[in-house]
Predict the structure.
Amino acid sequence: MASNVAVIVGSLRRESLNRKMAKALLELAPASLKLGMIEIAALSHYNEDDDQPGQVPQAWADFRGRIKGCDAVIFVTPEYNRSVPGVLKNAIDVGSRPYGQSAWAGKPAAVVSVSPGAIGGFGANHHLRQSLVFLDMPALQQPEMYIGNAAQLFDASGKLTHESTRAFLRKLLDTFAAWIEKTG
């Protein structure tokens, strides 16, 4: 049976390099993984005042339910100021609350950072991993996925054309499938 894997993109732009990379992951997924994107744009800023029984915003409840229904998570993120974008951090906060009821707990995770720059979002990748430790999400260590110079990897229609990057993503997905079996 295939593992149900949430793919969360830390960029809201429809044509972001990270969204394109996430779509490539969906295309390349082996039969052992059922990948599906979970959108974060509709999540309002987390405010504990709104996280009361009977008052929880529907978008939060839906998001938490979708994460809880997954076996694992792949985060695909750009780097903003050596960290993850605020929208991704907000999604993590929404999913981790209320305290003691985290939707993330125990789910194996992988991090893919994508950047038009040379270092491939190294800072965001490692900053996100710090949060994953607290969230009790065993993070795949290898292969490390810092994808730099990403603007040159896609054709005009947004399809990943760089074959060595496609091979790298396949390696990640195969390794992640084994990681889910080991830790999930």
Observations:
- The helical segments are 17-28, 58-68, 86-96, 122-134, 163-183.
- Residues 163-183 form the longest helix (21 residues).
